[in-house]
Write a structure and sequence with these properties.
Distance between the termini: 16 Å
Helix content: 25-40%
Number of domains: 2
CATH class of the largest domain: Alpha Beta
Largest sheet: 8 strands, parallel
Keywords: Dioxygenase, Flavoprotein, FMN, Oxidoreductase
Protein name: Probable nitronate monooxygenase
Radius of gyration: 18 Å
CATH topology of the largest domain: TIM Barrel
GO molecular function, one term: nitronate monooxygenase activity
Strand content: 15-25%
CATH superfamily of the largest domain: Aldolase class I
CATH architecture of the largest domain: Alpha-Beta Barrel
Pfam family, one: NMO
Number of helices: 12
InterPro entries: Aldolase_TIM, NMO
């Protein structure tokens, strides 16, 4: 049994898996290229990058892989349009956008023949996205890591949205293994987006302390924080999140980071994410999905993809036998 291909506009991925775009610099060219090389869709996280940096990442990914490469850029970042335009100028295949909603993005995609895939968490936004010209939508539930647009569970959302739109639906949030993939394909999703599983890969360019927090975390050791973006965010518990809970994180009046259009200034989100990327678990914020503690090993992307596909095929095969 073969898994269905994931079709997004004119793009066709052999494997219906899109690797999540995780900032700051968690999803970079080596990870995106490795996933694309295995037949999935690799995403570079552009939030927190300069225009030149995102261009360099796209060029590096293109050098490493001839597969499908996209970018994920938060609508909430100050230089959203500039980063989108830079990505388009480098010939990116698709643009995924969350943490806000941009109507202008759809016209930019249409004018430049680039597939646009918004992240949504409601039937209303799914329908609006389809009407505006989205090639597909990522439906994200509360189980996801990072910034959340809903407190609703993923499965009921996917069921409703699959019935409401005709474009491909990509399920995201708490998807860890092949059985999860099979379950969402059975629900009518065209594919899945997975972030946390690919953090624990050899190609992910975060420091070892970041990955070790993932594979050492126990069930229930995740927490919701209030992000300066204006949305809740799901992260792994550590010293930094403990201080956030106690309201003892220092804030500043100025910020040197490529940051947000609007910021609550409770703390600097980019600084906290960068500290985590660099291995400082005392000052760093580690975003992760609700089921990330189930991950217990660090593997090459090639092996992760092979295991995911094999397990998904087995589970789909068993389901077919039961019918």
């Amino acid at each position: 049994m073969k898994l269905p291909k994931l079709r997004i506009g004119d793009l066709v991925a052999e494997i219906p898996i899109m690797q999540g775009g995780m900032a700051y610099r968690v999803s970079t060219a080596p990870l995106a290229a490795a996933v694309a090389d295995e037949g999935g869709i690799g995403l570079i996280a552009g939030s927190g990058m300069s225009v030149e940096e995102i261009k360099e990442e796209i060029r590096e990914a293109r050098e490493k892989s001839s597969g499908i490469i996209g970018v994920n850029i938060m609508v909430a970042v100050r230089k959203f349009k500039e980063l989108v335009q830079a990505s388009i100028s480098e010939g990116i295949d698709l643009i995924v956008a969350g943490a806000g909603f941009s109507r202008d993005l759809f016209s930019m995609g249409k004018e430049n023949d680039v597939e646009i895939v918004p992240i949504v968490s409601s039937v209303k936004l799914a329908k609006i996205s389809e009407r505006l010209g989205a090639s597909a939508i990522v439906v994200e539930g509360k189980e996801a890591g990072g910034h959340l647009g809903t407190d609703k569970e993923l499965k009921p959302l996917v069921k409703k949205i699959v019935k409401a739109v005709d474009i491909p639906v990509i399920a995201a949030g708490g998807i860890i293994d092949g059985q999860d993939i099979a379950e969402y394909l059975k629900l009518g999703a065209s594919g899945v987006q997975m972030g946390s599983r690919f953090v624990a890969s050899e190609e992910c360019e975060v420091e070892k302390e970041f990955k070790e927090l993932y594979i050492s975390a126990q069930e229930g050791e995740d927490t919701l924080i209030e992000s300066p973006v204006g949305l809740p965010g799901r992260a792994l518990s550590n010293e930094f999140t403990d201080r956030l809970d106690q309201d003892v994180v220092e804030t500043g009046d100025a910020c040197d980071y490529l940051c947000l259009k609007k910021c609550s200034q409770d703390f600097c989100i980019m600084k906290a994410l960068r500290q985590a990327h660099d291995g400082n678990m005392k000052e760093g914020l580690v975003f992760a999905g609700e089921r990330a503690p189930l991950i217990n090993n660090i593997l090459p992307v090639k092996d992760i993809m092979k295991d995911l596909v094999s397990d998904a095929k087995k589970y789909l095969g068993r389901e077919d036998e039961d019918e």
